[in-house]
Amino acid sequence: MRTAVTGTIGAGKSTLSILLRRRGYAVFDSDGYARMALNANQPTAQKVIAAFGEGILDDFGEIDRKKLAAEVFGNEEKRQTLNGIVHPFVKEGLEKFFALHEDDHFVFAEVPLLFEAGWENMFDHVIVVTCGHETAVQRMMEDRGYSREEAEARIASQINAEEQIRRADTVFMNDGNFRDLDNKTAAWLKQYGEE
Fold it and tell me: Residue 171 sits in a domain of what CATH number?
């Protein structure tokens, strides 16, 4: 069963992925793969530089992710341009991952932009991890060093939680701690005879 892990920012998607890996499941990290697309040795990096100019480079001629994020954030046209370069690279990696694990009973992929990319049909099941607005803001301020304004802006830039919940097969409300999410993960896996 191919299962996507997605959800709202600051809700705990990566924490769920850690819990699944600890149980021995293969989990594809689409954000990690997207970062690989920006490595200097990748043709995708050259396309990004061509699209956004040398102002996004650091002193070593590498793409500075913070500069690129600042360039793209809040600009829908630029975001679409970047996604148009990076998403095909990530999708190809995801397809290779599925091929590599085709004999596994369960495989997971953490795909934060699942709905934005229109990739739901690549999966048999979609888990949305979400939490209350204030919980997400606090986590981003504590874990990522965002100001409240930055955290609010990141939340506002996503498909809203209600829409994600509507499109999910399973919803994990994650306003609690690590142990609570671990218990929810165990209960969900047990439904499939996995725990």
Answer: 3.40.50.300
Asked if residue 68 lies in contact with residue 55, where contact means CB atoms within 8 angstroms, the answer is: no
Q: Residue-wise over 128-146: b if at least 16 C-beta within 10 A, else e?
A: bbbbeeebbbebbeeeeeb
128 DSSP β-pair partners: 6, 171
Q: Please give the model's pTM, rounded to 2 decimal places.
A: 0.91
Amino acid letter, 77 = E
Structural domain count, the chain: 1
Q: What is the mean pLDDT of each run of 10 residues along the chain (195 residues)?
A: 95 95 97 94 95 94 92 88 95 97 96 94 97 93 91 86 95 94 95 80
Identify residue 179 by its one-letter amino acid code.
R
Give domain status of residue 136, yes or no: yes
The pLDDT value recorded for residue 89 is 96
Nearest to 113 by CA among 1, 8, 28, 2: 8
pLDDT digits (tens, 9 = 90+) for 64-79: 998 998 899 888 899 9
Asked if residue 54 is part of any domain, the answer here is: no
- Asked whether 15 and 143 are in contact (CB, 8 A), the reply is no
pLDDT at 195: 64
CB 136 within 8 A of CB 178: no
Indicate whether 149 belongs to any domain: yes
Give the structural domain span for 129: 1-25+104-182
Q: Please report whether residue 15 resides in a domain.
A: yes
